[in-house]
Amino acid sequence: MDELYLDNIDEFVNDHNKIVTYKSLSLALGVHVNTAKQMLYHYLEHKRKESSPQLHATYLVTGKFVGNGQTCHKVSIVREDQLEDFKSKMSLIVSVHVYSVQKALLKDSGPLYSVDYDAVKDNLKNCSKYSAIRCAGAEPMSPLELQQTLKVQIHPQPEPESSGTNRGTNTTSKSNTKPQKGIMGMFSNKPAVKNTSNEVKPEQKEDTAVVCPLLLLVLVVFAILLKVVPCSPQPCEKQDSAAAVQHQKDSRSKTKRVEDADSEEEKMDKKKRRRIKRPDPDSSDEDVIPDSPQPKESQPREISPKKEKTETGRSGMKVRKRRRVLKSQTYLDDDGCMVTEKGFVSESYSESEDDFQASKPAQRESSKAKPNLSSKDDDKKSQKKAPANSNKGAKQASIVGFFQKK
Amino acid sequence: MVADVLCEFLEVAVHLILYVREVYPSGIFQKRKKYNIPVKMSCHPDLNQYIQDTLLCIKPLIEKNDAEKVVVVIVDKDHRPVERFVFEICQPPLLSISSDSLLSHVEQLLRAFILKISVCDAVLTSNPPGCSFSVLVHTRDAATRNMEKVQVMKDFPWIVADEQEVHMKEPRLVPLKSMTSDIIKMQLYVEERAQKT
């Protein structure tokens, strides 16, 4: 073996006062790591024979170690003065070789890591060139494959009609672009998970009670979504008990919203967000009447706020519009009992100042009723309604004013 | 930002010097991570607070480029310096930290400083037991007046250093490391007393 490497190592250790590890030596001299280990060993032996200034070395010991009744494979870096003691504790020694040579007595292994860190960083592209660890199956990706992989990670393809098995994938893919696809996610046929998130978003928007095109879009999208979301069986008849109704309120089942959406979506398609059709009282709507234990729900309520808001956005313009107004209807049921229910009625109106003031009292009554909507209506919409109604005195006034005109 | 980088580095360096030179027992030091390498930092609250307050007062001087040297003096029981770790700091007139590559280059240089401090045991003799330390700042003339203002604000008293701490008789000069970058130039050397015991 060429003896020049001894001078190189001596320069690193004595002149530069460096810590020379076998890894940094192999990268510096361009030799295999096993060759670098042998170099360090020969250098140590050579220097100790010459009685040179004291050098310190660390060793890498691997083998079987029995501890707490368990046998484990242990790899340790130990100082030279601790080597024999450590070897005696091992049940089987697989390998022992020089890890580093330096002049200073190291108190901990931190500097060893620092040396290898810089050495690897300087030779990042070929840090494993001289390594003894090989894997035949590990091949670097071609630039084309790498670009394709990066593209897939950055831009996952959306899958709007995914099955339940694809839910996780879509969730993952959509989570990466959450702000953008929060609304888009509502279009997919997602089970409870997605709908729950969709519920949260409308609720949040309801709290703000701000009429904006985005809110309207959300409501529309939500309505469309409800149409495709599978609904669980729920009592929807007028004769449902108050407890069942209350349960529906608490559970806020999506089914009701779905069924509401079923009836409403048709209307929406026709009216294009502006028109509110009066739903049939005998329809299978499940809107729960607030406050009083009235099982009959004639109209879906979630549509009204958004439609009102649609029209609110157009306030200031005196145009003929249709609105859903909460009206009380009294009738006799099969048992001969008088049942008063509140339902939304589609009415046409034109906004004016007179309508604003006159409609305020009526609006308050409706606003009281609305916060107690059933669970079928999600919280978002109920919350939307309360602040919306309280703030939209002008609209309600206009509706009441419409009635007064009549 | 240069002052922040320097003060962070000086904090790590002071802790490491105290650990390597065994000014305090090694048990109070724990392994932490800085510049992507393990370093030893004290976990004693009073010591940490003292070092932080010291560097907090030095920071305005560094920002104004008034600090020429920051010296960590290790003194023996008789308050005579045995070693002086001198950090000579010089900031180029035009400072521009605009690229990540520059910062990573500076980090690499600072990492080399840390590594050199870690192995300075090899070139220095052992210190006597019972040593303590202090931090000196060599400033330009006008900066000393500003130090009084800083002292009042920070409630951390600074006094003029004793002559014997500032100058050492016939010290042995041991250079450790130097670095040159676009934002800062620094060199570290040790003045060691010939007879420590």
UniProtKB/TrEMBL annotation, chain A:
Gene3D superfamilies listed in its UniProt record: DNA polymerase delta, p66 (Cdc27) subunit, wHTH domain (3.90.1030.20)
Gene Ontology CC terms: delta DNA polymerase complex
Localization per record: Nucleus
One Pfam short name: CDC27
Comp. bias regions, Low complexity: 162-178
Protein name: DNA polymerase delta subunit 3
Gene Ontology MF: a single term: DNA-directed DNA polymerase activity
UniProt record, GO biological process: DNA strand elongation involved in DNA replication; DNA synthesis involved in UV-damage excision repair; nucleotide-excision repair, DNA gap filling
Region annotated Disordered, chain positions: 155-205, 235-406
Keywords, sorted A to Z: DNA replication, Nucleus
Signal peptide region: none
Broad class of where this protein is predominantly found: nucleus
Family annotation (PANTHER family): DNA POLYMERASE DELTA SUBUNIT 3 (PTHR17598:SF13)
Amino acid composition bias (Basic residues), ranges on this chain: 317-326
Biased composition (Basic and acidic residues): 247-260, 298-312
